[in-house]
Design brief:
The protein is mostly helical. Helix 1 packs across helix 2, helix 4 packs parallel to helix 7 and helix 5 packs antiparallel against helix 7. It is globular, with a radius of gyration of 20 Å. The N terminus is likely disordered.
Length: about 210
């Protein structure tokens, strides 16, 4: 008798259902947007009972909040991946983080907009607060390092805002229709173009000479 599982029927091991629901939620959000997003549609996409999402997340806002927290975790991972391949000096590291910022937006545009342009997630959630705070803390630590400041909490907000606005603006622009020719550029050329823009947002004494991304 063939005891292999039927690939058409989802089967979840203990601890996997929450991750499966988050993956289904992201796919649903990307396909139908927030207006048509529902727990029932996510359950159907995941191949589970319609009660499963409510059991794990409570309601739609709870699911979107959890998805947003997962987004910030992946957002940081995208930045870290770029930083790992970049020179270790502070300026190169913050440029790499900016490229990771853009990578994430291009790879997960619906999730990016949920994180930065939606009021639906509950930013009072402990998990979401922790991951969003980690992302902001990472940015302030990098800005502090670029400016030679030991303590990130001493960095002026305007310095953080300048770098953040540059990276976020580029990421958001890359999701717009007019930027299609830029999206079609070979990645090394596009990275060099963005890196030069991000470096211009650094303090003159910290920017250093232009360097090609790793």
């Amino acid at each position: 008798m063939d005891t292999r599982p039927d690939p058409a029927r989802p089967r979840y091991h203990h601890g996997d259902l929450r991750a499966a629901l988050l993956a289904a939620a992201e796919a649903e959000l990307a396909e139908v947007g927030l207006e048509r997003f529902s727990l029932r549609s996510v359950a159907k996409r995941a191949g589970v009972s319609h009660a499963a999402p409510a059991h794990h997340f409570g309601d739609v806002e709870g699911l979107l909040t959890a998805l947003c927290a997962e987004g910030f975790r992946r957002f940081l991972a995208a930045q870290n991946a770029r930083e790992d391949d970049a020179p270790r000096d502070p300026a190169s590291q913050i440029v790499a983080a900016g490229l990771g910022y853009i990578d994430f937006a291009m790879e997960a545009p619906a999730l990016f907009r949920l994180m930065f342009a939606s009021q639906r997630p509950d930013f009072r959630s402990d998990d979401l607060t922790a991951w969003a705070g980690a992302a902001y803390g990472h940015l302030t630590a990098q800005v502090a390092a670029v400016g030679g400041e030991v303590r990130a909490d001493k960095v002026p907000t305007r310095d953080v805002a300048g770098i953040w606005a540059t990276a976020h603006g580029l990421a958001d622009l890359m999701l717009s229709r007019p930027m299609a020719p830029l999206r079609a550029m070979p990645r090394p050329e596009r990275d060099a173009f963005f890196a030069a823009i991000i470096r211009r947002a650094l303090p003159p004494e910290a920017a250093g000479p232009p360097q090609p991304p790793a």
